[in-house]
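Q: Two folds, back to back.
A: First:
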Amino acid sequence: MLERLTWKRLALELMLVCLPALIAGLLFGYLPWLLVLALLALMFWHARNLLRLSHWLWVDRRMTPPSGHGSWETLFYGLNQMQSRNRRRRRELRQLIKRFRSGAESLPDALVLATEEGIIFWCNGLAQQILGLRWPEDYGQNILNLLRYPEFARYLRERDFSRPLTLVISHSRHIEFRIMPYSEGQWLIVARDVTQMHKLEGARRNFFANVSHELRTPLTVLQGYLEMMHDGDMPPALRDKALNTMQEQSRRMDTLVKQLLTLSRIEAAPSFELQDKIDVPVMLSMLQREAETLSAGRHQIYFHTDPHLRVLGNDEQLRSAISNLVYNAVNHTPEGTRIDISWLRTPQGAARFAVKDNGPGIAAEHIPRLTERFYRVDKARSRQTGGSGLGLAIVKHVLSHHNARLDITSEPGEETVFSFTLAPGLIVAPALKDNVAGDR
């Protein structure tokens, strides 16, 4: 390990150069001239090393300084150590910047670093997707030239960042902006896409509005008849009609509440193992009797069932989905309609359930919205038949738990089909005795 350069070291070096000249002068004479020559040689040596240092600093492209001897060895070694420390610090700084950028890229928000004047000097990839920025083309651009929204310009100008700013930009996307000081004279602009949150909030408001509307009608009917009964004696015929209507409205509210609870329970249910062995043919035989009773001879109802086709799933939920599809066909098709319910294997080995009718059909613009809560194609007819507008929403969530989806096809005036398909992996292999019985 070399020692650092000190006055003592320089004095020792001077003595070592002058000592030979002193000895030679004492022995041979010419002492002053020999001392001057020794000093000139020392100065020439220092000048040469100084020129080497200057050449390395300004001309040479090598990272390491030249080697030297004596006092210059200590100086060159010190410069080499300083270069090594600087290189190590630069590597650490590069790694730190790399980790910062990697972390910033993994955040779910768009990040923009800008000066207080709005000059952009960095942004992450999400900012390019959400805000339409380009990197590095937009380096040095003013953000107000790229986001031309008066509300955003006013938000920056007023500098009151205690509350976020929400803007509706292209394609009806809601973007929430937050700005905070990053360092002296710099801002960190955070933008988050809150479109889904706004949609959920809108759906929540619509849901409560629809529930309130659905409950208000029967409650109004009940309240009206109760006031009539309270005011005085009612004729027997009118009283019987009032009681029947009140019972119908009470059943309607009871059905609505039950379906709301069912839908809430299904939505809140976490993912679960589909382990229940469901005997769908037995379930359909019960539903056939119920559907025929509900139809009271108004429809032609036919069931086409594979008696050995059983599946794994959640028994309660799948029963709710299938019964909703069957009851919808009976309740919402006119008298004389033919209804075919099938539960059969597909050529690919899956299990397909379908409800087909030859009723008036459904217009194409209504089909994408049929599984929305409280959505009705014909609101007046749905209320007459007691429909709540929740049945297909329940079916949709049940099928999502079984990794399936509801398919709806309709040709107005010809036929309408509601169907879903369960994967072959959910089919239960038939027992041996079933196969034997089938062979017989």
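A: Second:
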Amino acid sequence: MKLRYAMVCSSNQNRSMEAHSLMKRQGFDVSSYGTGGHVKLPGPSLREPNVYDFGTPYKQMYDELRRKDPDLYKRNGILPMLKRNSGIKLAPQRWQDNSADGIFDVVLTFEEKVFDLVLDDLNNREHSLMRPVLIINLEVKDNHEEAAAGAKVALDLCQELEATDCWEDSIDSVVTAFERQHKRKLLYSISFY
């Protein structure tokens, strides 16, 4: 693989981690992040989410929720998701706090609000390298089924980008063909490092 990818959602739990997992298994150079202020997981009700700081290990969340209500968190898919996540990396990482992780060629977001936050962060950095980065938003609902389907679509898109000689020269045709094939609209922009 010639490009370096970042998968970004709000909490670095479901959509970004599902795509991270699939792309890693396919041999891509991939990382994942969240853009929220905290990591939020569903709780017993909408008014009672489980809130964690970025950097809290997935295993710690898993153990805590398993102690709280193993039936609820198994039934709603949170425990299997956390188990999957802990097999990929230690803990959720916040995009804005991890700029030292390196330079990405492509940043794929799964929600327009996240796309805007990533673009804003990149545009407010010093652009000393003048190296382009492609930011693409692929809208995916934040549930387990949609995250799994979205990861497959994200993989297709990344495989198309890998097949180009230079994404800067072919991004318009790649996006047009992708949108036609998948019947999904993409939002994209270019920033710089």
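Q: And?
A: The chain has a mean pLDDT of 95.
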